[in-house]
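--- STAGE predict ---
source: upstream dedup step, 1 unique chain passed
mode: sequence only
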Amino acid sequence: MSPIIKRFVTGLLFCLSPWINAAVADSTASFSPADTSSPRSTLKEFIDASNEIYEVVRDNKYIDRDSELIRSTAMRMLDCLDLSDLPAFASEIRASEVAICLKEILDRTDLPPFDEIPGTEEVSAEGEKLTSWRIPGTRITISRVEEGPQKHEFLFSAGTVDRAVRYYQDVKSYPYRTTTPDTSPGFYNWYFSSPGNSTIAPFINSLPQVFRDQIFGMAAWKWPALITTIILAYFVMFYLFRIHSRLTSLWKEKSIVLYCLTIVFPALAVLTPFMVNFIVRDELIVRGRALYLIEFISLMVSLFASIYLVFAASNRVAEVIINSPKINPQGLNAQLFRIVSRLMSLILAVAVFLVGGQYLGVKLTTLLASAGIGGLAIALAAQDTLKTLFGTIMLMADKPFRVGERIQFKKYDGVVEDIGLRSTRVRLLTGNLVTIPNDELARFDIENITRRPHIRRTANIKIPLDTPRDKLEQCVELIRGALKDHEAMNPKFPPRVFFNDFNDDSFNIKIFYWYSPPEFWDFLAFSEKMNLEIFQAFEKQGINFSQPYRVVHNDAES
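--- STAGE serialize ---
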């Protein structure tokens, strides 16, 4: 275990505030480390350091947080423990209890004389053969560490650390040994019943013993304070998320700066469980199973709040980019930024989950396997959603239309109002609003009417079959004259008029012309004007339009 974590654990053990950890590192730099070169020196260092701390507890009823002597002594005691098998969060809350329990066990055990315990000479003589030593009459083992920063040191083994609390529960009814005066009676009870605040410590110590007796592993006076702290934390987080949700919807469209500032609320929500942990550990000095459970739940809540914070922060980064003057907030580029932001936040959220899970003691391989199985299950359960997502990505890449453009898709004809991550909303020319899944838009043909460079008209004028040839030729010339250099004509696309076919009931004259720019209502007005001019020209020349060909069947009675 690294010295930094040890210093932090020491601070937790002796009610030190977390904000002075850096100062602890500086102030302890000159302190000599514990001598753990042999089982004898390790056991002696541990007992001596524990007794020094107990003397302060017995005399003052409270430990001064700023005492350099206390901090250095605590470091010597914890240097004797192998905490390598504890997860990070558990090492911060369990090491202190383990140390107290080991001291209580040793106080009830008749230890052999120190000169009979293997020392440096025996270790050197045995060479690599001496790897561990068990205290007679106990299950406590001091073993040689073979790897890590404390390599080749003799420490209370990782197995002993893991089972120390259970060992104490087995022997706590035994009497303290009286053969030597270096015992610390009542150390464990003080540890579980003392407050961590110097202001309330005298008041708690003056309470009747019934308030300091343990109920379900914790002093009676701590239960009301603990329950009050948890309830207050719940309401704080609830209202932080509620305020964040309301202000986000209120300010997102009004001010990008205010919208970004709303990230403060989920950030405070992430910090709330840590504040609970600080109060529970360092002020109330809750220990044992209650602390493990509260610590674990608090860190889990903070982990999920952190994942929420990641998504909220990525959304704000995307919106800041989208609010650039060069980007249409409703266009495909904006949607592309949003979907990339979502994917990046998903990756970061998985990373936070893996790191947080490892901190809580779950092995990385287990987390990866769980993530793989979970991802497969989610993928199978959300095939349609994933298909729509990939369709959205294809639309982002191809950009077949933008918001405000008129498109034709299957039987739909209308103007695009919104392009979402799952679907696109189109306002039909009839006024109805239709929602089309993006995967369908990506798979089928889309006709973008807005992007046409012009509007082309194709018309057929039918002339009666009894019209003379010269009149027919005159009809073609009249139409060509009416369309020559017409309004909004594109020089690259001049009008075309041809006598192109013989119908069963008429001669057919085919008309083509292109109107640019493609303003639909102007095009209709121009077409009406052309129709009237052709009509008037035909009337002057006495040319008729062909009547519809009709067949009448008369079934006579037989």
